[in-house]
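Design job #97: recover the sequence.
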């Protein structure tokens, strides 16, 4: 929508806020690609909603080692001017102290009780990765910070059964990446063409380059942010 002398202050403020959000998203994507250059975590905005990001993480250590987990990151419409930490949600539940068994949402309140404009998504994602790879650290958090007490209890009382459940989770995660998830920008792979780990990473990089080269066309809130909320 063009802006001229007759444009209201409210509309101008909305355009400026939206432009700031778009710029910040591009900045965050650049920072994330720099921070996670070793091929452990990738994110891209959804094709239909730039405030919803698709992600995939390759777990390299800890009890979930070898798991490949897809997740989403939900930003608020006024990002980064928000007090609420962006929401990270897995596509299926796992036995982890900081991941709700009901909503599959990662509880980041231990490290990010509030959010402000100076925070960056890569720090949140680094904490997410750290918690997935350091299970015992999460078990030792204050009880009020644990959203899945059953996972802690099972790990403490019956490590054999816990190990069996985690093994099932790892196997499931490896199968899920071949299942379409309803978004063209979601990380999905062809079982017949992906055989080696290196091929998976190259496939991701190629896909991300194609998406980011056309990123402005995938933005869903270029002006009317009311359609997003």
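Job complete. Output follows.
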């Amino acid at each position: 929508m063009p802006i001229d002398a007759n444009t209201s202050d409210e509309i101008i403020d909305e355009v400026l806020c939206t432009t700031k959000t778009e710029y910040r998203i591009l900045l965050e994507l650049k920072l994330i690609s720099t921070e996670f250059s070793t091929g452990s975590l990738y994110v891209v905005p959804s094709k239909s909603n730039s405030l919803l990001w698709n992600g995939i993480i390759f777990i390299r250590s800890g009890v979930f080692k070898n798991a490949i987990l897809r997740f989403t990151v939900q930003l608020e419409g006024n990002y980064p001017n928000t007090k609420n930490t962006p929401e990270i949600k897995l596509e299926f539940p796992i036995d982890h102290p900081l991941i709700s068994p009901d909503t599959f949402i990662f509880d980041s309140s231990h490290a990010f009780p509030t959010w402000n404009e100076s925070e960056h998504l890569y720090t949140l994602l680094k904490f997410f990765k750290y918690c997935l790879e350091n299970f015992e650290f999460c078990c030792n958090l204050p009880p009020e910070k644990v959203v899945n007490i059953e996972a802690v209890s099972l790990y403490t009382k019956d490590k054999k059964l816990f190990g069996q459940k985690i093994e099932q989770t790892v196997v499931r995660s490896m199968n899920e990446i071949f299942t379409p998830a309803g978004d063209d920008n979601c990380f999905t792979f062809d079982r017949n063409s992906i055989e080696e780990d290196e091929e998976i990473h190259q496939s991701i990089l190629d896909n991300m380059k194609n998406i980011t080269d056309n990123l402005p066309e995938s933005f869903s809130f270029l002006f009317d942010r009311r359609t997003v909320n």
